């Protein structure tokens, strides 16, 4: 690594020349403003340096231009230069060194092998009445005995990664404008302004709906609950991914439904061939539930071809396809992945999502489009919980109507990517031989395959004694699978603390592996 190498003029020129001509004044330097494509100039400049780093023009250890040199080279203000460097820093591409300046960061690739792909030759087992609730209750009870444990088992980001101040100010403005928000009953389907905004934003996911096609819910879990109640009866069978989010297994249990587990890939999601075979051999399947984008716990994103095949398969079989899609906007992809609903032509897909993961876990604001079951879902919503609390909806509508949400999402994705990269490097360096995992392309989860001799249930208990929370793989299946898997999340913004916790978990896994293999 060339620790104190400055960027040669030729390399800097490469970065500058890559800028579009319409962002430079007559002397060849970029104008300090907003380029014609609508993006702020600081992002345009950051992207040029990002490409230079990706292409090897700028190498690990190269010194970036000083702020003064950057301003002179590109003809920009201090604010633009500072924000350009902050963008690169949030993306873990450069580091600031005290009294030395900014340097291109060495990228650390995870050295562990990818997670094992499911064996598609294994025939899905018999559908089972779900009995996972007692296992979840036991874990929650243990969590409560360790209130100060570092939480690497959660499913939301750290509170300081969400726009707390902006949401508080929006709430105060909303109450001043509409003082009866807390005392007047709201519309049954939800706030009309918010539903109209959601319908417009749904176009980004490939979904074409109107505001009357949106029903607000208490988070995404109520949306899934309503969808299942609309299309099943107690005793019915529902096909789910395996591994599967344990919250869904709890919902199935509460509704008296059977779970038929279909293997899912850590890279492409639910196995379409296995599902097709299961639908032939289990004619009593009444619904399919999937998380197509950044699946929990795998972190997989279904390719578009798989999404189209899945929708076609369910439509041909006449089976409702329930899409739980709360993580889509946390993808690192240049263009967010599309939802399954984008391929729906006859109302087969029931789309469920929320803002719990992306914006405000405390608000519990979700929504559902019920496809051809939409009217029935509306009546079930009224019977189950009536209208949603309206203040959160009005606040959310104001936030979504501006560019504030997009700016927040960019910051959140950048920060989560830095946290994942740090955690992936720590896992690769600390966990014992035989550990496997596939780093996801967004979100906050790692699905880690431990050596087979390490029990995740025992590992969970030992980690709690170390003051660390995680989720054992046993709760992600009702069929006794995944005993040597764990789910880690990266919600902590204290990266050094998280690194230390991962190193301790790695040592703990090595100890338990050695103990298990001792005669």
UniProtKB/TrEMBL annotation:
It holds the Pfam family GntR. InterPro entries: Aminotransferase_I/II_large, HTH_trans_reg/aminotransferase, PyrdxlP-dep_Trfase, PyrdxlP-dep_Trfase_major, PyrdxlP-dep_Trfase_small, Tscrpt_reg_HTH_GntR, WH-like_DNA-bd_sf, WH_DNA-bd_sf. The lineage of its organism: Bacteria, Pseudomonadati, Pseudomonadota, Betaproteobacteria, Burkholderiales. This is Histidinol-phosphate aminotransferase. The keyword Lyase does not apply. It comes from Paraburkholderia sediminicola. Its EC number is 2.6.1.9. Residues 24-37 have a biased composition (Basic and acidic residues). In the C-terminal section; belongs to the class-I pyridoxal-phosphate-dependent aminotransferase family.
